[in-house]
């Protein structure tokens, strides 16, 4: 389905991003892994090479505009274009609002939210010259709609991504670029087998999520046959946000 499509995945060397990169590789895409972690990026690049996938790792700090510009230009220099962008990179800050510094606040905003705008802008400049435009998918979170204490900076960025998604969909639509976002719930990227029975049972789906669950949504949103779907946020959380959570 994605043969010859060029996919850029930020935060692509680990966690959800890694799962998304593997899914696109198996679907025949040319995969660009953008990540700040050099070792993990090189490791995944080697794995994709062993799979026979066209791939490129570019070390990138998405909190820096120049790194983003360079990422997109290097991709075009190597593969000729960009068809799909997955905005996945992010960081988490767990600090009381009484103690959160301006420096830490700005770092979360730059990494999680500003990067989505600037990556989308730079990728769209290239996509608009494609015959079929392109697709952008960004990772929001169920924390855009519900919160734990001390997560103000993170929640702000994820709520911002949902709003930015429909704004960009409106602006980029005339250039045949779809823009959507995904709000994952609990997606276990570590020791899945070590999870407890209660971890799974509390979900309406009966299990905790996996990166592959998010990857499948990315494949759906970026399938050219689904270009009527834009400006949409898809919650993938095993039904957790549909539960009444009052204590008995």
> Would you tell me the structural class of the helices and strands?
alpha/beta
Distance between the termini: 48 Å
Oligomer, anyone? single chain
User: In percent, how much strand structure appears in the residues?
Assistant: 15-25%
Biggest beta sheet attributes: 7 strands, parallel
Tally of separate domains: 1
Task: Determine Rg (CA atoms, Å).
Answer: 18 Å
Amount of helix: 40-55%
Low-confidence blocks of residues = none
The strand count comes to 7
Tell me which CATH architecture applies here.
3-Layer(aba) Sandwich
Order of helices and strands: EHEHEHEHEHEHHE
- The geometry reads as globular
Mean pLDDT: 96
CATH topology: Rossmann fold
Adjacency order of strands in the biggest sheet? 3-2-1-4-5-6-7
Characteristics:
single chain, 248 residues, alpha/beta, Rossmann fold, seven-stranded parallel β-sheet, 7 helices, 7 strands, globular
Task: Describe the overall structure.
By secondary structure, the protein is α/β, with parallel strands linked by helices. The protein has a single domain, classed as NAD(P)-binding Rossmann-like Domain (Rossmann fold), CATH 3.40.50.720. 42% of the residues lie in helices and 15% in strands. A seven-stranded parallel β-sheet has the order 3-2-1-4-5-6-7, with helices on both faces. Strand 2, helix 2 and strand 3 form a beta-alpha-beta unit. Helix 1 packs across helix 7 and helix 3 packs parallel to helix 4. The longest helix has 26 residues. The chain starts with 5 loop residues before the first strand and ends in a 12-residue tail after the last strand. The mean pLDDT is 96.
